[in-house]
Structures are given as C-alpha cells and as structure tokens.
Amino acid sequence: MRYFLFLLVLVLLGCSASKKSVRKNLELSYRDLMQQNVSWQEAIHSLQGKARIVLDSPQYSGNFDAEILIKGADSLLLSVNGPFGMDVGKVFIGRNRFVFYNQVNNQFYAGDKSIFEDRNFLQFPLKIKELRDIFSARDRFDVLKRDLYEIRDDQYYIEASNGKMNYKMWFSPYYLHISRIEYYDEERLLFYKEYSQFKELNGIYFPMAIDFVRPRERQAVSIFYRDLKLNQPIEDALFEIKISDSARQIDLSLDNAL
Question: How far is it, in rounded angstroms, from Cα 25 to Cα 31?
C-alpha cells in the first residue's frame, strides 16, 4: 500500500513539474507593457483553427462551427457551418482581392477588398475589416497618448487616447496580454472585447475564448477555439474557395448588403 502511494506521489509530482508555471508580473512600465503587446502580435505569422461561434443579437441568434485560416498579413479564409454541418458561408480576404460566398443563398461577391471593408459578414455584427483582428485576438494601435496607468483589480489598467478614439485596457499580469479592452468614440462606448482561457501554443500564450460585444446594439459574438495551431505551415491551395457553377454573382452597383 505504501509502495502504491509512493508511486502515486511520483506521478503527481511528474505531472506538476511538466506543466509550465506562469508567473505573475506587475512590475512592467507602461512602455514595456505596450511593447510586449506589439511583440506578441509580431510573433504570430499564421493561425489555423476550428472554433465554435455563438451569436446573440436582436436580429439573429445561433451557434456555428467555423474554420479559420490566417497566413501573413494578407490572407484570411473564414468558413462557417450551421446546424447539422450545413454550409453557411465563406469569405476570403487577400491583399487586394475579396470573395464572399453566401452558400445559403447560393450567391457570391468578388472584387476589390476596399469595397467590402465596412460591410457586415452574414448576420454577424462584425465588419469585414474587423474579422482578422477579432479571430487573431489582435488590438493594434497607432501612437497612443497615455492618460492613466495603474494597477487595478490586480491587473494592469490603462486609459489612453488617439484623436477622438479613447481606450480602456486591462492586461493580465500572468500572460501580459489584454484581458479586456473598451473602444470609445470620445465618451460613447462602441464595443468591447474580452480574452480568456489562455493556452500555450508553440511558445505563445493565446486566448482560446474571445468575446466581442456592442452593448448599445445588444449584439455579441463569442468565439471558442476547440483546436488551434500557431505558426505552422499553411498551403496556399487551402485558401481557394470553390463556388458552385449555379451561384449568382451580385452586382455591387446595386449596393446589396452581405
């Protein structure tokens, strides 16, 4: 019996030793913390994952499965499936090219990326230009004016501004990544994002749960990654969208919404 308990203790110690501990750090300066945010973003060159998406809004609520491919700064492919594996839609965003295939309506859009940037993707409260940053958990800033920097609720807390845009940010002292960020147009809250369930992937801590909320519009999107790979090779052929020969191309001059 004692021998069995001894072996059990060894196994437990081995498991705890193999798990990398994350140390708390509340001693960074504002400059170092912001540089950490930049370095984290620059460290991610590709992302390949499967996720569950939960959409909640007055217009539409539902659950979806999605496959996400991101390569470099120019290639994104988002494929969304609905109940029972039904194909819902695909969107490809390249350096200049854009393709959106609404598989439910069997119609597609294609053209210059700049034409589509401010359009919404399907029934999601997400604009085309926001997709990459939301699915890759990125928050990129130009030069920010620091208005407040302190430790609040055992996290780094920052208030900063850039012209009319104001930001409130909370950084995890363990992962040194944003845990919550609020975007304001002057005093009006536009939306906020929350990041949680961090996991180490290829030497990088990444949030496996992402929440995007527009409070005034009562719109929310939650992304839960089930499987995720960072900085692994992705073949260019995977970014191709196969469109049915019977699909109808939408004339952009009619200004139809996606």
Answer: 15
Whole-number Å distance between alpha carbons of 103 and 89 = 5
* Predicted TM-score of the model (pTM): 0.84
CA distance 35 to 5: 48
What's the CATH number where 144 sits? 2.50.20.10
Q: Are strands 248-249 and 107-112 parallel, antiparallel or unpaired?
A: parallel
The per-residue pLDDT for range 201-212, each reduced to its tens digit, is: 999 999 999 999
Lowest mean pLDDT among 113-117, 151-155, 168-172, 248-252: 113-117
Burial of 214 (0-12, 13-18, 19+ CB in 10 A): middle
Does residue 129 lie in a domain region?
A: yes
Query: Cβ(239)–Cβ(71) under 8 Å?
Result: yes
The three-class DSSP label of residue 18 is helix
CB-CB contact of 178 with 37 (8 Å): yes
- Structural domain count, the chain: 1
